[in-house]
Specification:
single chain, 600 residues, alpha+beta, Ubiquitin-like (UB roll), 16-stranded antiparallel β-sheet, 4-stranded antiparallel β-sheet, 7 helices, extended, transmembrane, cell outer membrane
């Protein structure tokens, strides 16, 4: 009995909050508790309050809107106006209490001074006595449409919003699964106000599921689409004629077409049933502008300020060929590259790319110029492992400050695989990225050295209790070669910098020759652990410890770097500012690191 009284008390508070939260909290009323509920209301504007009182008590947005509206000053009310508004408040409270299951509530609203006195005696609620929910037309199994459980049971208070939300959710599910003939054969609530009970009867007929008909593609003028070959349009369509309709398939079709970057806009519409009862699909596309140019500005401590220019022509012809040219300029690095893309088995997920590029690095004490031409097959499914198979022919020239120089040529087959799982979108809270790279060269095939390179990179991110972010990363590399001195400097390993061991200059950690010049190592070991506190939505202080080194031959001690930083989630992406100390160096000097980019 005590538990029942307690539940009733909680329910009464929730019900009366329809008016009380709006009028008391928002409009400045005072209250006095007794066995029933009494409130003295002194609103500045009752019109908005009545509107809000008619809304479900749990709709916080409506309550907040009422707060804003009631801040407006209102003119003094006459006695007749107060009486009219008292009636409106009374009716709103009564109807709202009915919607929450309280059909016997006694409500009185009396003008009092400049405000009103509201007296509510909710009484006993109407409870569900019987529930009968029947499902028809469910003979054919559909894993995406299982008969849901009705949320009200015998003994529950009859809440209209729960009843209505259930029916709306079933209707929405039917539409999304292609059951366009579905309907409620019976939807009835039989009220017995004398016994305060209600019998609910629902009969739902799911009906037959509709199926896809022919898919027709047109341009913005309504003509048959000729901008892309039918082969690729069919590849991008995730369903066949005769498949059962699903709204998910229609969304996927639209997204696939947009992801090709061939089209500026895509509209997908289901048509009326054809002679076979199938529903044709009409796809109208707005062809993208032939050229797209973008200019970017950036900064990283490793390379300083940089400017990038990118030009794209995603669609050159109906076969889906495209071309892209990109360049980047900074104080220590200049590079340019052209890529010609051809769909292989899929315009997005499986392409052949022909590339040619040139780059020049002037880092530390070595200047390197590399020219490369190659071909890649890039397999990039929306989920799972991404793979890149490559063949490159490169020429590399380098010169050190001591005067040492050389020119080398390499023919390099390679394989790269990677996989990313993350949650949180552009600002992830959880995730794991793994990357593996293998490449080789042989003096028997247009190369000046024999070697096999293996490299792996792992990043792991998690968030505890919504505020404590932990980021760990590991990078390992090894080069197998009988003559390591013949391996090109750009192929060797280096450590240090913004994304390696903080506290040390970019590529500072590596073996050195007799002149003290960095020459790169045969082995790479880098590890890092970072903790960031989500202090504010866009600001996160952090502490970190990095360790790593690049070396040749036997094991070498790892260099340590540690420090503090701040993460700013800016409109253009996360900005990372770090102050790091090179612990392993004499005097443990400090270095600033500034980078832009997500942690994974």
């Amino acid at each position: 009995m005590m538990a029942d009284n307690f539940s009733r008390e909680v329910a009464l508070r929730a019900l009366v909050s329809v008016l009380c939260v709006v009028l008391m909290s928002c409009l400045g009323l005072t209250n006095a508790y007794a066995d029933d509920w009494r409130y003295d209301v002194s609103p500045k504007s009752l019109t908005e309050a009545v509107s809000a009182a008619a809304s479900p008590w749990h709709e916080k947005a409506a309550l907040l809107d009422a707060i804003d509206l009631t801040k407006k000053p209102a003119p003094a009310l006459t006695a007749a106006a107060k009486a009219t508004q008292a009636i409106a408040v009374h009716d709103a409270v009564v109807e709202t209490l009915k919607a929450e299951g309280y059909y016997h509530a006694q409500v009185s609203v009396t003008p009092r001074g400049e405000g009103m006195a509201v007296h509510v005696l909710a009484g006993e609620p109407v409870r569900v006595a019987k529930v009968s929910v029947q499902w028809q037309g469910m003979e054919h199994a559909d894993r995406g449409f299982q008969a849901p459980d009705f949320p009200l049971s015998t003994g529950d208070i009859l809440v209209q919003s729960v009843y209505s939300d259930f029916k709306q959710s079933v209707d929405a599910l039917a539409l999304s699964r292609g059951y366009y003939a579905a309907q409620w054969r019976t939807q009835r609530i039989a009220l017995d106000l004398f016994s305060r009970t209600a019998d609910i009867t629902l009969i739902y007929d799911r009906g037959e599921r509709s199926h896809f008909g022919e898919v027709r593609f047109i341009d913005q003028q309504g003509r048959a689409l000729e901008a892309l070959a039918p082969r690729w349009l069919a590849t991008l369509t995730p369903f066949q004629v005769g498949d059962a309709i699903s709204a998910k398939h229609l969304v996927t079709l639209q997204k696939n077409l947009l992801d090709t970057r061939y089209f500026h806009d895509v509209r997908v519409d289901l048509q009326a049933p054809d002679a076979h009862g199938r529903r044709p699909v009409l796809v109208q596309v707005d062809i993208r502008e032939p050229n797209k140019v973008s200019i970017g500005l950036g900064f990283a401590t490793d390379v300083g300020p940089r400017v990038s220019v990118n030009w794209q022509r995603p669609r050159l012809n109906a076969q889906g060929h495209g071309i892209e040219a990109s360049s980047e300029f900074s104080v220590v690095r200049q590079q340019a590259e052209v890529r010609y893309r051809l769909p292989y088995k899929h315009p997005i997920e499986d392409t052949i790319q022909l590339l040619a590029g040139i780059s020049q690095d002037d880092i530390d004490d070595t200047q390197t110029t590399q020219t490369v031409v190659g071909v890649q097959r890039v397999i990039a499914p929306k989920a799972g492992w991404q793979r890149t198979y490559g063949l490159e022919l490169s020429e590399e020239r380098f010169r050190r400050q001591s005067g040492e120089s050389d020119a080398q040529q390499f023919f390099v087959p390679s394989l790269s695989v990677s996989k990313l799982r993350s949650r949180g979108g552009l600002d992830p809270t959880h995730g794991f990225r793994q990357q593996y790279h293998l490449e080789t060269a042989s003096t028997a095939v247009f190369s000046d050295a024999d070697y096999l390179l293996l490299r792996g990179n792992w990043r792991w991110l998690t968030t505890l209790a919504q505020r404590h972010m932990l980021l760990a990363r590991v990078e390992l590399g090894h080069i197998i070669s009988d003559d390591f001195q013949a391996v090109a400097p750009s192929t060797r390993f280096y450590a240090g910098g913004d994304s390696s061991v903080r506290g040390y200059d970019y590529r500072r950690l590596s073996p050195r020759n007799a002149n003290g010049e960095s020459i790169g190592g045969q082995n790479l070991v880098v590890g890092s652990f970072e903790y960031a506190w989500r202090w504010l939505p866009s600001w996160r202080p952090a502490v970190f410890l990095d360790a790593g080194n690049a070396f040749t031959g036997g094991w070498q001690p790892l260099k340590l770097g540690a420090g503090v930083g701040m993460r700013w989630i800016s409109p253009v992406g996360p900005v990372r500012f770090d102050m790091a100390s090179a612990i392993s160096e004499p005097g443990a000097p400090w270095r600033v690191h500034l980078t832009l980019g997500a942690p994974l």
